[in-house]
Amino acid sequence: MIKREVIIENKLGLHARAATKLARLASRYNSRAQVYKDDKSADVKSIISLLILEARCGTSLTFEFTGNDEEIVAMEVQRLVADKFGEDS
Questions:
Q1: Most exposed: 40, 41, 53, 68, by fewest CB within 10 Å?
Q2: For residues 83 and 10, is the Cβ–Cβ distance under 8 A?
């Protein structure tokens, strides 16, 4: 199991387009991917589940990856979040 803590830094937070990118990325891998915000958790492969977190700019999220490709999915998710989901020039 791998855990990664990240801060959502794009202006609009984890909105529909960003959640879609994140879910599609995670869905390419076999590993289980969960994300935690305060007392809420979400399946990273579920757009609706991600939106329910209401992660705004500045929100701290903890991702947890478990499976045979956990290292690569953790790295790719961390990279996507750090890149602000390809938004905010």
A1: 68
A2: no
Vertex 25: Cα angle to 66 and 44 (nearest 5): 50
Domains: count for the chain: 1
Active site residues: 15
Closest by Cα among 64, 62, 25 to 46? 25
- At 73-83, the pLDDT tens digits run 999 999 999 99
If we measure between CA atoms, which residue out of 5, 10, 12, 8 comes closest to residue 36?
5
For residue 33, give the nearest of 58, 11, 4, 59 by alpha carbon: 4
Rg, Å, the chain Cα set = 12
Distance CA 74, CA 4 (A): 7
Average pLDDT of the segment spanning 20-46? 98
Q: Supply the CATH number for residue 34's domain.
A: 3.30.1340.10
Q: Could you tell me the residue range of the domain that residue 46 belongs to?
A: 2-86
